[in-house]
Amino acid sequence: GAVVSQHPSRVICKSGTSVKIECRSLDFQATTMFWYRQFPKQSLMLMATSNEGSKATYEQGVEKDKFLINHASLTLSTLTVTSAHPEDSSFYICSARAGTSGNTIYFGEGSWLTVV
Amino acid sequence: AQSVTQLDSQVPVFEEAPVELRCNYSSSVSVYLFWYVQYPNQGLQLLLKYLSGSTLVKGINGFEAEFNKSQTSFHLRKPSVHISDTAEYFCAVDSGYSTLTFGKGTMLLVSP
How far is A43 from chain B (nearest CA, A)? Predict the structure, then answer.
């Protein structure tokens, strides 16, 4: 099946710094990419949806200035957590879809962010 | 709006026993339905999906699910589970609002 790769899988950063997480679709062109956040033992919470070449659409309650999403190409989207704080520590998962609704959405392996 | 309900947060079962994980959805339009599995500290892997056609869908690892439009359900089944099936299972619906809506997940715990 299609492959979506996330990097890094784990990252530790100091409070106040920024960290970037990359999401790549390896064998298909992802017209739409999604970023989720998952707290321990909970479901996925959609943070934002991004279409290649346009601004991301953020879900209600997600700070767009804190969680910067860039989808510069059909195979790469990035999530930058700016001025990170310990409460931003979480598991972040990206996913990608080729085409439109109904096409399978493939997920990356996830990235553990720990802010100390 | 669409929503997904997974009634069981945790399902304990013995190895080689059958299992059913329940999923009900609500949507005002036609939907596409998915089951994903998440192993500890990993992303989600697609188990199976229903887009159209036969209501009985077979997926990977011996899982299958049946779409029941009248009951708005998409229950996941496996006739004989293995220890390695221990994981979190998420039901999701896509009704054209650009992304998936997930249920809260069901933890399948398989013991010897």
Answer: 5
> Can you spell out the DSSP letters for A80-101?
EE-S--GGG-EEEEEEEESSST
- Nearest-Cα residue of chain A relative to residue B10: A41
Non-local (6+) Cβ contacts of A22 within 8 A are A6, A7, A76, A77, A78
Q: Where are the domains of chain B?
A: 3-92
Q: What is the pLDDT of residues B64-99, one digit of tens each?
A: 999 999 999 999 999 999 999 999 999 998 876 567
- The distance of B13 to chain A (nearest Cα, Å) reads 19
Query: Alpha-carbon distance B102 to A45, whole Å?
Result: 8
What CATH number should be reported for the domain whose range is B3-92?
2.60.40.10
